[in-house]
Amino acid sequence: MGLIDGIYAVLNKRKEDDEFHTELTRTDIIKCIQSEKVRFRGVNLSGLDLSKLDLSYVDFSYACLKNVFFSRANLLCAKFRDVDAEASIFHNATLRECEFTGANLRGALLAGACLQSANLQDACLVDSSFCGADLRNAHLQNADLTNANLEGAVLEGANLKVRYYGPI
């Protein structure tokens, strides 16, 4: 087998093994966001690079967003209700007034993100990083913050009420 045949074999094997099975490409997303009201409800966008895009007011509710790269994206008022965004990267993204109610953000990177007035109620934030994030007036009621890194995060006015189920 020649070098070129070997490269093609590896590339084809990667395509077969691709666990994400993304339904749209970055180009498809760019075309869609030029519309008036954009909804990606329940769509599998796993593994896509959506960095630096203006995705404000987009509805991603119930979508599979595992390992999506949202770094420096404008997601103002976007909806992420009940999404699976495990290990996604929101580094330095604008997430002001976003809704993450019931979202799975396990292992997500939100360092330096602006989450002012965001609703993260009942979200899974286990092992997530909020280093230097702006969480002013954010709603974190009943969010699971186990092993979350909040170093340098601004929490002024944030609602951190949690339920306690352990012994008294």
From TrEMBL:
It comes from the Eukaryota. Transmembrane segments: none annotated. InterPro entries: 5peptide_repeat, Pentapeptide-BTB/POZ_domain. Pfam families: Pentapeptide (PF00805). PANTHER family: BTB_POZ DOMAIN-CONTAINING PROTEIN KCTD9 (PTHR14136:SF17). This is Pentapeptide repeat-containing protein. The lineage of its organism: Eukaryota, Viridiplantae, Streptophyta, Embryophyta, Tracheophyta.
